[in-house]
Amino acid sequence: TERLVCYERVTPAGSWSDLPPHRHGEDAEVNEVAYHRIDGDGWGVRRLYADADEGRAVVVRDGDAVVIRGGYHPLGASPEGDVYSL
User: Fold this and answer.
1) Does pTM top 0.90 for this prediction?
2) Neighbour tally for 82: CB within 10 Å
3) Using one digit for the tens of pLDDT, what is the confidence trace for 38-65?
4) Most buried residue, 1, 5, 12, 77, by most Cβ within 10 Å?
């Protein structure tokens, strides 16, 4: 638990979080796991990218977890429901 950091965030329906996007330092060995709970029929999209590439977008549904191994990782919530991230 010496190296564990935990946060909670609610991204309101139709909104983005982590804007402007942040990333973890290149020298730090930080992996992030984001667990998502989503209201109703909502969904989210997490964009994973670094400076030099286009990256990818991952659609998240209620109960999904995404492993983030560096780079930028903003999250958007669909208009259909709030997205809770842990």
Assistant:
1) no
2) 18
3) 999 999 999 988 876 778 999 999 999 9
4) 77
Structure token pair of residue 57: 């977008």
Residue owning tokens 């209620």:
62
Residue whose tokens read 């139709």: 14
As a whole number of angstroms, the distance between CA 51 and CA 85 comes to 24
Classify burial at 1, counting beta carbons within 10 Å of its beta carbon; exposed 0-12, middle 13-18, buried 19 or more.
exposed
For the cut 80, the answer to whether the pLDDT of residue 28 exceeds it is no
For residues 69 and 30, the answer to whether their CB atoms sit within 8 Å is: no
**DSSP character at residue 49:** B
SS3 assignment, position 71: coil
